[in-house]
Task: structure prediction
Amino acid sequence: MRMIVPEAGGELDDFGLAQAYAYPRARWLRANMVMSADGSASVDGKSGGLSSPGDKRVFGILRVLADVVLVGSGTVTAEQYKPARPRPALAALRTGRPATATIAVITGSLDLNLAAPLFTEAPPDARTIVITSEAAPADLRAAAGQVADVIVAGKKAVDLPTALTALADRGLGRVICEGGPHLLGQIAAGGLLDELILTISPTLAGPGAGRIVAGDAFPAAAMTLAQALTEDGYLFCRYLLANATS
Result:
């Protein structure tokens, strides 16, 4: 994988990639998404159909750099999420922090498989977090609290600014959102997104599949291309939102 923007360069090893994707500050929300060349967010209902070894490599680096992985419950189910795995070769990048990023699941309904590895196999120092609202049934909140840390943010629905503040108060300010499209849409509509990391796959997925953003419409937001890398026909782009400051 090599840099082409802001200037062409040689091959990047994992530590070079980590430097390229370093967080600008301690509290920062970035989203990592993949789409086809014709704008699809998935193939056969899963984003993995658009991925590549290079995309998976970037995915792993982004998790190593993050304090917390923010993800919607639909994506947790569809992609069969598990706890982040340790990467001993990159342990120096997590000095002073747990060996892995914490996974935080946004859910209004609390319709979760609490027996899944995401909850049963998470390490004690990176216990999975469930973020829900006051409207969620008390018995389901109590059940989730047996296998995860529960954050209640918002009355009728999850209030994302409150949720992000609660994460930051736990020392989890460097956030990577991995979707899905509805969660990314809510984050973008709320003006909460600092950075979009987008893999563009050299694939024509055809009609029918959704985009990387879903939900209610919101005003268009300008972005700046801060960085682009390439490998095997894939583009790996970093876009900064106009309101983001480093």
